[in-house]
Amino acid sequence: MAFDRPRFLRVYSFLVYAFLFIPIIVVVLFSFNSEKSLQVFDGFSLRWYEEFFRDDTLRESLFVSLEIALITMVVATLLGTALAIGLVRARTRWSPAANVLMLIPLVTPEIVAGISALIIFSQLGIQLSFWTIVIAHITFSISYVTIVVRGRLTAMGDEVEQAAMDLGATRFGAVRLVLFPGLWPAIVAAGLLVFALSFDDFVISFFTTGEDVQPLPVRIWSAIRFGVSPTINAIGTLMMVVSITAVVAAVLIPRFFGRKESGIKVLTGQEGG
Amino acid sequence: MTARAQSFWARFLLPGGLWLFLLFAIPLALVLALSFGFTDDLGRAVYAFELDNYADAFDPLYLPVLLRSVGFALATVVLCLAIGYPVAYYIARYGGSKKHILIALLVIPFFVNYLVRTYAWVALLADEGLVNSALGSLNISETGLQLINTPYAVIGGLVYGYLVFMILPIYASLERMDPALIEAGKDLFGRPFQTFIHVTLPQTKQGILAGCVLVFLPAVGDFVSAQLLGGPDTYMVGNLIQDQFFTANNWPFGSALTVVMMIFLSFWMVGYLRSAAREARDPVAA
Known about the structure:
heterodimer; A: mainly alpha; MetI-like fold; 77% helix; B: mainly alpha; 13 helices; 1% strand; globular
């Protein structure tokens, strides 16, 4: 069968990669177009970027998106890391329930997470605002952190910690001196991944955004519905730069901790197993 | 482990567990509760115990939307599998030293905002878009093809959006597979096709199933692709739910639609969670 012939597979894969990249290349290319056209590239210009940065509300949205992603990253990383440690090390009767509770957000369609957040906020009489978006983002991000950190934790085992305690370290000391340094690459990678996911999120933001501040994807949504506009290409390209920087950092940073394995393995929890 | 060690580690469960319980589990329960409610004359959602919303959800007016969502999502799964498996196979078996770059190149598009990616397809497929102007200048089609506002465009958008979720788990299961098995299969069956059917495919069943679930779940609930690439004829349940919360202001009906969707998805979710739990217990055998 053609299936196991490298040449066929290479051509096939190349076509799939082309399918994946052509739309993105179009967006980036036309963000530098000097004309409004989305069909003909007339010449290089930065006018759509200028337009973006001259627009106060759009610029504000960019900063709001960045702030949300930063706060989400910090809080979700703390909560998710602790949860991962608890899930791997503690054997309580709550552990199985906590494990299921952690996994469900990963398989729940975003729209469901969005409307349940909307309903709880309205139930509690909380006005939708910047903070409702942050809370909803943290909720969906915890599980990603837990999965990534748990993969690293399982691979590490607890022998070194035990040894540290045999040598006189307190349990807390062992966590601080052995567990955290070992987990650090996974924690950083998970944090950056969550930053990118939060920064890009549209659906959950859409359901939890108030009148005052709207993150960039929500703005893009309203803009697209008015029709295709070159400014969206510029916004899309800028967002791409931000989130890809975060993801590339997530992959590369574990290497700076002196590890030969790729950060991809840390992220997908494949290492060690 | 000692009881003291137990209580030490158990404390780590608390903050995250409590957060998810209060802000994920309880809200989900509220969606269920609200689905039995109704909207009063002032347009406020009222809790009650009525089944009207569920009767409405299966009304001939809305049932086609539910069925269409499932149909589109299944088509997306099939296409993603057909497109993704050979790519995963190529990377795992012939990627060599470039494996990590090839995987990174797959993941990068996924981190381009989903709206922006879908919007790119709008620009490509529009009546006066790039594809049609290319077809026109090549004299293939003078009048242009109707590409946007078709079911094909919506399904294409979904495939484009979720393909990576299919490729990664299949790739992971191919990586776990012992390459010696393929050699043994070739000795046993001779032809590559039979080796593939009898050896590779069963060995990667886990990855295929995981990929199908990970594509199916978000595809059913998606409303972006149908909204931007389709029209009223291609509405999916996500669009319907979104309408209930933003335009029709009928939260109880929106909640009932969500519950119906979730019940349908729960079979897939439970299947996936079970295999994930198996994998967490025993990462080598999975």
